[in-house]
Amino acid sequence: MKKRIKTPERNDPYATSAADMNRAPCAQFPFGTDRYGRCVCSRVLMGARTSIFSAVALVGLTFLAGSVLGLLAGWYGGMIDTLIMRLADVMLAFPQMVLAIAVAGILGGGMGNAMLAMGISGWTLYARLARAQVLSLKEEPYVHAARLSGCSGWTIMIKTLLPNMLGPLLVTAATQIGVMMIGIAGLSFLGIGVIEPQAEWGSMINTSRAYLQLAPWAVLAPAVATIITVMIFNYLGDCVRDALEAKEAET
Amino acid sequence: MGLDRPFLVQYGDWALHALRFDLGESYKDGFPVAEKLVKALRYTAILALTSLALAFLAALPLAILTALHKDSLLDDITRLFSFAGNSLPNFLISVLLMYFLCVKAHLLPLTAKASVKGLVMPCLALSIPICGRFIRQFRAEILEQLGKPYVSGARLRGVKERYVLKNVLHNASISILTIVGLSIGTLFGGSVVIETIFRWPGLGKLAMDAISNRDYPVIQGFVLFTSTVYVVINLLIDICYAWIDPRLRRKGGGA
Question: pLDDT grade, residue A65 (50/70/90)?
């Protein structure tokens, strides 16, 4: 049993082998091999690192950037508000995937560019939400109290406002992980995300698609991995939302 | 082509010409970009509208049924379907459809030669994720309306269930329209992927070909064109709000 778990270490996900091209699943290659004779199982496991890390990192970055910008826009108002929110409006005028495809297409491949392409409009979601939250929280007595006691703008924003508006923002972030994962995998599938031979589920599905008749396992393994992972993250999002809503109903 | 000029000058030049509906010429074959886009728009419109109609027509009855019979077996099955549909990337559905319908069952052609038979798989692939989301959101909206006092009032007075449902649907239609409007962006993005996979000669395929050929005028034209269509559709939807809800008309438009 222990040996089975160690499989990915035994098979190098990047090692090609002309003798093992398009091999059906067997003991040595649990999910078979692809057209270059690479172990699909190891590549799916390596791809998990790329796919999950990039989606989580992207959500984290857009969450941070969007929340801070929304916070600033809501708190200071005036010019800053107009500048940030009009920028957000411009980004929202494009359908997200269309903009992402164009940006990734023009910048060229690579995980960093794909993430940038998805994030360029991703932050607006958090910015709008954070701004709306700040505007409604601004008139709360405790915010006035904090102001009267001489707290600076930054202190109020970070210590008073942020903890109170984190709930809805976190719910949005949790539900976005699945969406971003699908988006990045979609870009990679189109060939404008990660560059081969880096293991990533979207690009694995794309490159193995041409050999669907010969080696369906090379498509099905990353496909099933993507479906299960996105489902788990979507379920996580639902759970976070239910938990926070229940908590809000209690208080 | 003026590629030696500074970036900003080139961009300004492009923008000025775009204002006069002149999107320049394709680097690859010299055809005017605007002409190419308009030609491709027809195919994308067929694909997108069919998929949207399919998703909507499948989702609405299911949403009504599951909202009326909450926690029934049908409700559970539908919930599972909509959850799965929401988690499936459309390119994955395409590949799975190709595998099961073409490779295994030999039912349909692999690529879509602009025909009805070729339209089946791209439409399914494009509409399943949208349908999943629709069912979920429509159901939530109808349930919310069903919980309102006017529904219990009407039921107490003995109004037939059919008329109650009519009122509920009318009141839910604003939100339903919003949900449909929000899916337009998904539809455009999704059609790029789907058209590339099935070789459907629409806007998305044009854009992907342009990207692989580094045909920048076509990419720029595609983004401008798609966004314009997107904004115009959203504007039309906003106008529809006033048409559905007379209250918004009096106030001179909502927020």
Answer: very high
> Residue A251 has what pLDDT?
62
Which residue is it, tokens 């994720």? B129
Per DSSP, A27 falls in state S
CA distances from B233 to A76, A150, B139, B202, B229 (A): 33, 49, 24, 18, 6
Rounded to whole angstroms, the Cα distance separating A167 from A250 reads: 14
Among A235, A168, A191, smallest CA distance to B91 is for A191
| Beta carbons within 10 angstroms of residue A207's beta carbon | 19
pLDDT tens-digit readout, A186-212:
888 888 878 777 888 888 888 888 887
Where b means 16+ CB within 10 Å and e means fewer, B49-80 reads ebbbebbbebbbebbbebbbeeeeeebeebbe
Min CA distance, B86 vs chain A (Å)? 8
User: Smallest Cα–Cα separation from A170: which of A217, A239, A72, A87?
Assistant: A239
Using CA atoms, how far apart are residues A213 and A202, in angstroms rounded to an integer? 19
DSSP one-letter string for B105-169: T--S-SS--SSHHHHHHHHHHHHHHHHHHHHHHHHHHHHHHHTSHHHHHHHHTT--HHHHHHHHH
For residue B14, give the nearest of B203, B231, B221, B227 by alpha carbon. Answer: B221
Best A89, A96, A113, A190 residue to mutate vs chain B (most B CBs within 10 Å): A190
Residues 6+ apart with CB under 8 A from B89: A182, A185, A186, A189, A202, A226, A230, B129
Helix, strand, or coil (residue A39) = strand
B24 and B219 Cβ atoms separated by less than 8 Å: no
Reference A119, options A64, A191, A47; nearest CA is: A64
Which two tokens mark A148? 């009267």
| A226:B186 CB<8 A | no
Q: Given an 8 Å threshold on Cβ–Cβ distance, is B87 in contact with A96?
A: no
**Residue-wise pLDDT tens digits, A23-49:** 777 777 777 777 777 888 888 888 888
- Region A64-85: mean pLDDT is 91
State how far the Cα of A240 lies from the Cα of A167, in Å rounded to an integer: 9
A4, with CB counted inside 10 A (0-12, 13-18, 19+), is exposed
- Among B92, B192, B216, the residue with its CB nearest the CB of A101 is B192
Query: For chain A, how far is it from start to end, CA to CA, in angstroms?
Result: 49
Distance CA A190, CA B207 (A): 11
Say if the Cβ atoms of A93 and B222 lie within 8 Å.
no
Work out the minimum CA distance from A65 to partner chain B, whole angstroms: 23
Q: Specify the amino acid at residue A103.
A: V
Weakest-pLDDT range from B27-41, B81-95, B107-121: B107-121
